Amino acid sequence: MKLKFSLISTILVIIILMAISNRANSQENSLSQKFISLFNNSMNPDVACYRIPAIVTAQNGDIISAIDERVPSCRDLKWSDNINIVMRFSKDNGDTWSEIKTIVDYPLGQSASDPSMILDETTGSIFLFYNYMDLEYEKDIYYLKMIKSDDHGQTWSSPVDITSQISKPEWSNDFKFITSGRGIHTREGILIHTLVNIQNGAHLFKSDDHGASWNLIDTPLKPGDESKIVELSDGSWMVNSRVNKMKARYVHVSRDKGQTWDSYPDNQLIDPACNASIISYDMSNLGVEKTCLLFANANSGDHRENLTIKYSFDNGQTWYAGKTIYSGQSAYSEMTILKNGDIGLFFEKDGYKDNVFVRLSLDWITSGAKD
Predict the structure, then answer these.
(1) What's the whole-number mean pLDDT along residues 119-132?
(2) Beta strands in 208-289 (DSSP E)
(3) Fold of 34-366
(4) Would you list the domain boundaries of the chain?
(5) What whole-number percentage of the chain has pLDDT above 70?
């Protein structure tokens, strides 16, 4: 009798697990049908691949997506003499998108890579940052540049070299770069972003005058590779960092505007050493007086796969499992809050062959899946 009962219990457990697995697969399959391919390898036969997604919501509600157009190969900046920055925009919360438009294009031998953006919520200006190299005459020398749009991403200024403002003279030959993705505009009106010096750690740079000038906050964050900053509900700054070979994220928190930091590994956020995304969602518009942090990454310790969004209601002390967005190959990602309150996610998919956008509701991420 005990054996029979044990067998029945085992069968019931298997049935329940299969039901859960089938429900999860059904949810993911349903979600994948909503993916919109913005940049993929089949769009232009002269382009090897598109990589390094960045996305921001303009003040008028338009969504701006930017990415590397890597022409001769899919390799990074120091190994490719023809990388351009291209963009697409949407005026309807991501339902439809413009044609691809080139916004940074240097002569052959010079490349621009790793786009990232900040919206100045006061002026409406959008700053797009990128890393530059002249592979013909200054191989391995990184310059840090930006362009600006005052019309919601429709037109852009000429490039401005801000290397001398946000780095040090003794860093001239170092491997340094602005992190791709996005920076933030704090509640006090400071524009802040992250850069990395591989030899000297991650750093913040900021502007107190709406982007007219920029300066380095000379307090290194270690360990830290590609890093993202978010402002917490109490005004503290949190930097979430990629760390190679650790299989998890590293977190740095400052309560004095970047002068000192408390740093710790966060084993709740497993990671295969890949750029990720973190944003803060103010829920007061939903009638809830709390802030939700959203974190998107390749949720695996060993491989760039299993793109997942997790969430926290306590400034990142506790992370909930959230939702798997795509269980297959997936790498760099970035998020933005849309004008209708949804979250727009833009990520690399299927071994850098595709870069897709998907729109998600906060309710779906933080509760049960809803069609």
Answers:
(1) 98
(2) 215-221, 227-231, 237-241, 248-254, 262-270, 277-282
(3) Neuraminidase (2.120.10)
(4) 34-366
(5) 90
Place of tokens 């704090």: 186
Q: What letter represents residue 258's amino acid? A: G
DSSP H or E segment with residue 143: strand 143-149
Is the model's pLDDT at 105 over the cut of 70? Answer: yes
Mean pLDDT, residues 293-311 taken together: 98
**How far is CA 265 from each of CA 36, 177, 224, 326, 333, rounded to the nearest angstrom?**
34, 23, 11, 25, 21
The two most distant CA atoms of the chain are separated, in Å, by 82
Assign 10 a pLDDT band (cuts: 50, 70, 90). very low
Decide: 371 and 90 in contact? Cβ < 8 Å: no
pLDDT band at 286 (very low <50, low <70, confident <90, very high): confident
From CA 211, how far away is CA 146, in angstroms rounded? Answer: 10
Peptide bond before 45: cis, by omega within 30 degrees of 0? no
Residue for token pair 């040090």: 168
How far, in Å, CA of 267 to CA of 259, rounded?
25
Find the helix or strand (DSSP H, E) in which 24 lies.
Answer: helix 2-32
Task: Decide: helix, strand or coil at residue 165.
Answer: helix
Classify 46 as helix, strand or coil: coil
**DSSP 8-class letter at 236:** -
